[in-house]
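Consider the following assembly input.
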Amino acid sequence: MRLLALALHRLLWFAPTLLGLLVVTFVISRVIPADPVALVAGETATPAQVEALRRELGYDRPLPVQFVDYLARLARGDMGTSLFTRRPIVADLAHRLPATLELTVAAMLVSVLVGIPLGVLSALWRNSLLDHALRVLTVSGLAIAGFWLGIMLQLLFSMRLGWTPLNGRLPGFPPRGLTGLYLVDAALTWDWGTFGLALQHLALPAATLAFPALATLVRFTRAGVLDVMQSNFVLYERAMGLPRPLIVWKYILRSALTSTVTQIGLLFGILLAGAVVTEAVFDWPGIGTYAVSSIVRSDYNAVMGFTVWAGAIFIVVNLLVDVAHTLVDPRERAS
Amino acid sequence: MTAVWFGVTRLARDRSALIGLMLIAMLVLSAVLAPVLATHPDDVFELHPSERLKEPSGAHWLGTDRMGADVYSRLLFGARITILIGLIAVGASLAIGVPIGLVAGYHHGWVSDLLMRVSDIFLAVPQVVLAIAIAQTLGPSLPNVILALSVTYWPWFARVVYAETRTLQKEVFIESTAALGASPWRLTVLHVLPNIASPIIVRASIGMGFTILTAAALGFLGLGPPPPTPEWGRTIAESREFLPDAWWYATAPGLAIFLTVMGFNLLGDGLRDVLDPRLRRSGPARDG
């Protein structure tokens, strides 16, 4: 019941948070010094034509009116039209979503499946050779610039060795399918040639994106496990003669992973942010590339659309993290 | 005083902290002594088209770039920009985020909810994206990069401080101090803050590196200080069209970023070991 109450409480805050986010981005996007209407109209447009377009797009009205209007359309699932591509932003985002999703999920899977076990081992075998090696890896992962790592991987594996393609998602046509995730679609249609190609294209960007997230996870899991190992209840359990594997895998991990669960939530932010830059390096046709080019083109309808999209996803993830945190940490439930 | 001295000697004995300190010292020295250490100090502004894209040699230790400027000399001057961005942005983030996190963590009720929701708004969009938006809106320049990073980084401190304060509140010693009649002010500043210092420091150490990385990413995307500023991220972006032949051009500034950020991370680790009494007492893990 408490869990339900917590979820509802957080859900209640969902709308105000999103509204706040909209206000912030709206204000930022509308104080842009460049006149986006003039940009859309082109260099040859006369001042009268620019003004006509401004009226047509509704940009001549007061800001609060524009904002309320925007909210009303957003509630109907309409994010407006891109000033640049002249296509609905919802369509632009939906078109690019699978690419970003594939990249982010791949990186997330790699970092969780590899990072958490390595972090636990590193703590259990503290000061061993493995721990020291992982420490170097962790320190490197947190210190390396993602875009530089991507470029260096391209330099080595694509340009020098020729093992992987330089950039992009797939040459030629995508596999038939519903999801738009090329790996899933290729596997579903039993098209293993395309599957291999897609995997080759995905390898470098996913590795680039996963590396800092993996380092973060190893670091926090290790710290969490070490922290719990030195707590009194573990001392007590050892004094009681519980077998070590039981203490480690049941009691220590359960306690230690509470902080790691929160970390995975924050990790999602790291990955989304990293995806923006990683996509730019690898010309990955995802939402990150769209966001960067929209910002640079002062296409603020598109920027707003991206912000709402990223914000909504992130708020939902945070909500899930809170609920998960309560699930794994009984102390939270009792309060 | 003894405690401080104890801390300093312990820090000097910690290997990773020592490496971190050395890396940061190298960075600071490069920045301060850039005009002296540089082999071609005028290359920040001068062009030498005939010297374009030369391999590393005795005359140009790290080769030359597309303008014929010495890569090594420009790296040294770039260190100044990096230090400036990191220090101001993290300092401002701490000054905003820690008090907000403390207040939100200590109080229960709508004030706390409101403060955390405001920080959630900022955390709800990837920092790079919000920073890109702000930097693009205000125009590419050094102060705008710093402003964009400060505005977007403080919620990380608020969140960490909030979570730690909430956890600490359930501790018996906090409850008993409150029962003794300590004011909320006294309780948070004298009892809560010192006990959550190490997570703040860990976050600040990551933050210093993270901020420098984000600044480099902004530079890479063309939103940093405009050319001919020798900003490291922008240099990497400029070098891309000359790959794979001019490998040194892309490699050198990336390594500089890497070593700088690593220095701050390692120092942060060492500081945590010294400042966290729990880890200090226990020494090597008892559990093998």
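The mean pLDDT of chain A is 82. Ask yourself how this observation constrains the way the partners meet.
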